[in-house]
UniProtKB/TrEMBL annotation:
Keywords for this protein: Cytoplasm, DNA damage, DNA recombination, DNA repair, DNA-binding
Residue numbers spanned by region Domain III: 145-202
Domain comment quoted from the record: Has three domains with a flexible linker between the domains II and III and assumes an 'L' shape. Domain III is highly mobile and contacts RuvB.
Subunit and interaction comment: Homotetramer. Forms an RuvA(8)-RuvB(12)-Holliday junction (HJ) complex. HJ DNA is sandwiched between 2 RuvA tetramers; dsDNA enters through RuvA and exits via RuvB. An RuvB hexamer assembles on each DNA strand where it exits the tetramer. Each RuvB hexamer is contacted by two RuvA subunits (via domain III) on 2 adjacent RuvB subunits; this complex drives branch migration. In the full resolvosome a probable DNA-RuvA(4)-RuvB(12)-RuvC(2) complex forms which resolves the HJ.
Residues covered by the Helix-hairpin-helix DNA-binding motif class domain: 72-91, 107-126
Organism in which the protein naturally occurs: Propioniciclava sinopodophylli
NCBIfam families from the UniProt entry: ruvA (TIGR00084)
Reported function: The RuvA-RuvB-RuvC complex processes Holliday junction (HJ) DNA during genetic recombination and DNA repair, while the RuvA-RuvB complex plays an important role in the rescue of blocked DNA replication forks via replication fork reversal (RFR). RuvA specifically binds to HJ cruciform DNA, conferring on it an open structure. The RuvB hexamer acts as an ATP-dependent pump, pulling dsDNA into and through the RuvAB complex. HJ branch migration allows RuvC to scan DNA until it finds its consensus sequence, where it cleaves and resolves the cruciform DNA.
Name assigned to this protein: Holliday junction branch migration complex subunit RuvA
InterPro entries the UniProt entry points to: DNA_helicase_Holl-junc_RuvA_I, Hlx-hairpin-Hlx_DNA-bd_motif, NA-bd_OB-fold, RuvA, RuvA_2-like, RuvA_C, RuvA_C_sf
GO MF, one annotated term: four-way junction helicase activity
Lineage summary: Bacteria, Bacillati, Actinomycetota, Actinomycetes, Propionibacteriales
Pfam family, one: RuvA_C
Family designation: Belongs to the RuvA family.
Gene name of this polypeptide: ruvA
Gene Ontology biological-process entries: DNA recombination; DNA repair
Amino acid sequence: MIAQLTGTVIAVSGTWVVLDLSGLGVRALCTPATVASVRVGEPTTLHTSLVVREDSLTLYGFTSPDERDAFELVQSASGIGPKIAQAVVSVLPPEELRVAISQGNVAALTRVPGIGPKGAQKMIIELKDRVNALGAVPNLSAGAASLPAEDWREQVASGLESLGWGGKDAHAAVERVAHLREEDPAVGIGDLMRAALKSLAR
């Protein structure tokens, strides 16, 4: 099991980060919070979870052990795979997830694409006794690598679609956060993704 990687960030997208590990480039799928916390050219540590399938090995990376633990915990609920688990931790940071499950907050869980009321209730029942181990929300840095003029729109939209939202909703969310890019051209892709996620969760 690969639990942690430390290296230099050489590429960032809306949903992944590539680390250079002494000449070996490793790509990890990441949440918007993780993407927002890294900068190209700087060293970083990712807490990782390796998902093994018959035809693939997929590495997921997170800024904190709590976020990774939340990702793995959610997958222990029946019917939840890594794609939905990543969407869960993208919409609900560890502390919010812990509170939502502990308090039986179905509405909070159904903000995640792919989780309906029945799925949320099942998750609450199956995880309620184990969720208290989750810690606090990770501390995010203010920005990330800047992007070429309009590339950010496609990256944010494709990132949202990979988390389960439809193309129409994803592009509408992009338009709702466009003002952030206009106000600060250096705003990072991770921050734009977080803002878009918040607009979709309302």
